[in-house]
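pinning this so it doesn't scroll away 📌
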Amino acid sequence: MARYTGPKSKIARKLGEAIYGEDKVLTKKNYPPGQHGANKRRKLSEYGTQLREKQKAKYTYGVLERQFRNLFKKAAAKKGVTGEVLLQMLEARLDNVVYRLGIAPTRAAARQLVLHRHITVDGQVVNIASYSVVPGQIVAVREKSKSLEVIQDSLSGFNHAKYPWIEWDESIKGGKLLNNPQRDEIPENIKEQLIVELYSK
């Protein structure tokens, strides 16, 4: 399945944010990559600002262009504020829910756990990272995979109370999606209205 496999620090420097987590390179070189990156940042046009916000959302959630465009079309067809619905749909992706549950330290690691058949939804193994989890469904670690070191390390000390839309159950090493999160509950620094404006042109 296609995904971005290029240098993550370069993307973080380009966007000016540590979207993949703590980044030593970004701390040392807090300017865009390339020959002229250290020069003063050029002021972005309105289109450039909107495009950057879309790129930030894509890279944050690990979604490629066509997938993202299709998600936006589905979000636009639903009731509610399109930008907020879009973020809710991104949050409902199985790899993201696994990440939010603390089962994996990053979304990329969560995606790998899903693809390698370590994750179940309502007791059935699901190996599709883009699978959309709906409220009421239970996402958990497969019984045979509970002893994996990467999962145990990730869960160690993880604060499950920070995402109120997910209910954690230690006995099954998993949790139930209670509801779709409200915009103020989603911690990502994404200005979704700019994405809506970009696609509305």
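📌 and the second one:
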Amino acid sequence: MIKSILIAVLVVAGIGLVCGILLAVASHFMSVKENEKKSAVRNCLPGANCGACGYAGCDGYAEALAEGKAATNLCVPGADAVSKKISEVLGVEFQDVVEQVAFVHCNGSCGKTEKKQEYEGIKSCSAAKLIYGGPGSCTFGCIGYGDCMAVCPNGAICLDDGIARIDTRKCVGCGLCVKACPQHIITLFPDVQKTVVMCSNKEKGAVARKKCTSACIGCKKCELNCPSKAVKVVNNLAVIDYDLCTDCGLCAENCPVKCIKIADFSGEHRFE
């Protein structure tokens, strides 16, 4: 009996030993050597895997950099510090990063719009949107359950008076909130810009105004008064081309409903 057990144990041990040797040999001859340059570049990146660089994640961006297929200034969250490190590792010229901030294009706070229904369910914007476009009378505005806040890695987003607000002192421009918002009312743009449209309603002026007192009415006064032709009314909503905008402020001055604002992105922006 004991002899049979010992034989079984020895057989199993022998098989394990042979398998271990085979795996070690296979690992030695079939392993793929890691690109040392890629590893060095990857160590420079913050690891947010946000996709702001245009690649699936930090690994994808590091691989493209190591192969010389990407610019060094695409990591918005890492800003100039990361770009400088990458440039040093690759031995290339430093490229300045255009820092970006996220902005919520809605000013439909509790005192400016109303609910059309009471929502009882998962406190998620994506879930609430499935029920007739959300509980708010304006189906284009912020739903206010914080899907964007939940994904922000820096705590830059809070819910204030029923809508999401972004503290630009903390925002690194990763873009995760942009992807999380089911209303698509959060955008990224260079933090040097100051002019913003605080509305996303694309209904005709009279209809939009009934749903929210801060809504754009599509009157085109901003378009007519812009000296650089940077503002256009598209689908009843003012849209700013930041490549043309000079932040002169004339569009904000002439907006009759004051849905165009001049913002200071050096700190937390709040508007009345």
